[in-house]
Amino acid sequence: MSATAYDNLKQLGRELxxxxxxxxxxxxxQEVLLPKKGIQYRAEQMSWFSGWQHDRFxxxxxxxxxxxxxxxxxxxxxxxxxxxxxHQYEQETRLPKRLVQEFAETxxxxxxxxxxxxxxxxxxxxxxxxxxxxxxxHEQAECWGYEEHLYDALIDKFERGAxxxxxxxxxxxxxxxxxxxxxxxxxxxxxxxxxxxxxxPVEAQQALNQEVAEAIGFDFEAGRIDTAVHxxxxxxxxxxxxxxxRYDENDFCSSLFGVLHEAGHGxxxxxxxxxxxxxxxxxxxxxGIHESQSRxxxxxxxxxxxxxxQWMPRAIHHFPQLMGLSAEDMFAxxxxxxxxxxxxxxxxxxxxLHILLRFELERAIFSGELAVKDIPGEWNKRFExxxxxxxxxxxxxCLQDIHWSMGIFGYFPTYSLGNINAAHLMxxxxxxxxxxxxxxxxxxxxxLLNWMRQNIHxxxxxxxxxxxxxxxxxxxADASALVEHLQRRYIRS
Amino acid sequence: MSATAYDNLKQLGRELxxxxxxxxxxxxxQEVLLPKKGIQYRAEQMSWFSGWQHDRFxxxxxxxxxxxxxxxxxxxxxxxxxxxxxHQYEQETRLPKRLVQEFAETxxxxxxxxxxxxxxxxxxxxxxxxxxxxxxxHEQAECWGYEEHLYDALIDKFERGAxxxxxxxxxxxxxxxxxxxxxxxxxxxxxxxxxxxxxxPVEAQQALNQEVAEAIGFDFEAGRIDTAVHxxxxxxxxxxxxxxxRYDENDFCSSLFGVLHEAGHGxxxxxxxxxxxxxxxxxxxxxGIHESQSRxxxxxxxxxxxxxxQWMPRAIHHFPQLMGLSAEDMFAxxxxxxxxxxxxxxxxxxxxLHILLRFELERAIFSGELAVKDIPGEWNKRFExxxxxxxxxxxxxCLQDIHWSMGIFGYFPTYSLGNINAAHLMxxxxxxxxxxxxxxxxxxxxxLLNWMRQNIHxxxxxxxxxxxxxxxxxxxADASALVEHLQRRYIRS
Lengths: 493, 493
Prior knowledge:
The structure is a homodimer of 493-residue chains. By secondary structure, the first copy, chain A, is mainly alpha-helical. Chain A has helices at residues 2-32, 39-57, 60-69, 76-93, 97-120, 124-144, 150-158, 164-186, 202-216, 252-271, 287-301, 305-318, 327-333, 351-366, 375-387, 413-432, 434-442, 446-455, 465-473, 480-490, and strands at residues 223-227, 233-237, 240-245.
């Protein structure tokens, strides 16, 4: 009887996954390909699927299966699955179907409004759908419940175990340690950009990016790279992981590091145990862990001197104008610290200041202190205080990121957790296995990838994020490894 | 009560359409983008969705709604919807769910096997999945039932009102009339191909194709063109119609006429009444009508002298090496009749011989006269007898078309119906409205498009195909207009 209940859950999970992965394709397609006028119908499709998923998962029999399944299961995997099913079922049954569908539909339209608002740098075009999404997120959080802050309920969706207070403390402490590094790093002598001038033809960028992604282990028979305004990674099936990037003909590094970043996410997706697909343990565990993988490959690998010692000849092959630049030159060029407007283009040192700004604003929005109409003003005020110069238009300010248009709040702080985790994991991995460093020096990335496979990817969601880090490294992550790394890399005088 | 039953059907129809259009995206994606290793999971997705659709539509309550709805409905639209729901319900309830799912899953794998078999020109790689698909189609046909030939049940899926006997007679008569034209046309003096030599860069081809597709009325805010090995058109949402084509750097006409053809399909899809989406009458009515639209724009418009008088300057703009060629030269070049291997590259005169070959083979397969293992031999024997020279490998023979790998049998003959319908519609349209010819001469395609919109596109599936043709033209279609057209265009001596 109990075995049957567990099997029923597994069967249901597989169905929900097949359908959910189809929604992922609808969503990917919306960002990459969908014709402009197709948005209304796509919203209706997304809404219908969300409603169907909700109905299917919140049926009373599912609650009965969950109650029954506990009696007989024994393995660690089964227990972890049940832990997650319980949590998800509790969360989902607290939401009315109307809210689920309204959220799914609203975010499709909001994304479309945001795209136009950003193009025109006109926040007013985005204010109404944003207000609606924030209201819906409020309502979700009230349904889910929280102990201290309403914002906690939103954070929990992306990072189990995190909270407003914990993040305030972690990010605040990080900021204290970053400030002196930022100050010193941004005052280093600048690399002469004229030595790195374009044009860098898109086809040549694509060829180099593909070589690099393959070299670090991304499997192109189980994935692809496409072009999109917003770079992202979608693991939409066990053998179908799709990255997007965008190209700047004047700067090949923009797409190269974009691809390294998204391929880092992609390696995690491709490394999840295929046979668990459709079970909760088959999923990536949290965004803070996901982002550790992208930042690891982008920054710890891609911005290292060893990387450029390997790849400079290939870069020159694709971009002959780079002839005469050394690996040291490129290392210097890609590790310049500059206070700038755009988060995704910012360097490792100043990046977390961008996150802190967003975290503080979201906290204020969901505590009711900040109204939507005041977001641009508040953004600009805080930006100037952190970065020292004013925002000139909202496209380079509060309209730059896609997240809010997708109804995603509580997501940004996981980027800083990712930076912290990446440095912490990298430090442990290098100490664990000397073949990793030797490998990196000669362009063999498999020892590092294997370490991540064994300690992170293959674990899926068996452990909650904090436990996973402790299992992998022997202790909780703190900012010390990140700070050490930044000092070593950026304080060169 | 009855009104409610009809409303229930409408509501269900909308849901099935939303999901069906999602399956269309899964299928489009499989042909255009899906990474190689993603095929197994995609097959599982397609199978699951087919099973879900089957369950949802064959529920007993749906039969009750259909029985009840007839009492109160009055309008022509409602009656046509009910006619189609009845037909679809009868057909679908006759199939066991197991068969529906097995068919959906098998065709995904078969398509993948066919791709490899065609690349390697090795029929043996395709024989097993093809055998399986033919068995499943046999089983479907037995479930659906038929009066004379089992093959009739398969044809009915694509062309209501057609049958083996009717098609044998129509295509046989067409062949008799074509033979003397083929003989004379293929013996005309040949155009000097060296005057049309490449390279024609892909970007320039894309630019010209886009201009042409826009000029005939294809709306790129509600559609797009992508690259795929197999050119096709998918109307996957009311404002999302996607064409595919492939590029040959030595021959820009290959992609140009491919796009004109697919855009013809696309105009039909974009012209279907949006407000009917999800009702049977909102669908295109048959493949023989669909193909009339593609062949109309490809051949009657795109291969006309008037077209090249308009477009020669743009072609020269994109491909400067064409400077010195006149519209008459291009007209001659794109209207050469040649007996050749590949159906999709064949000219208007010899095209239907390719169809006849396939029709005869399918008839023999489903009457049990032809075993799968004997298909290549039989194909080659008949090809040589019709075309006068031997097939050298199966890639240019029985492996050239994708259709069988998708489990699509009974589809090919609708291509010839499309040719017949296109000529018949074009003749009537030109007689009906003198603005059409004037428009074509000055590159204004809207009078012709408007005629098709009013007489074909906007009718959706209100009428069955034969009735639609009579409504539009005053009489049934026969091959006379096609034969006249071919004589006029090809017999130039």
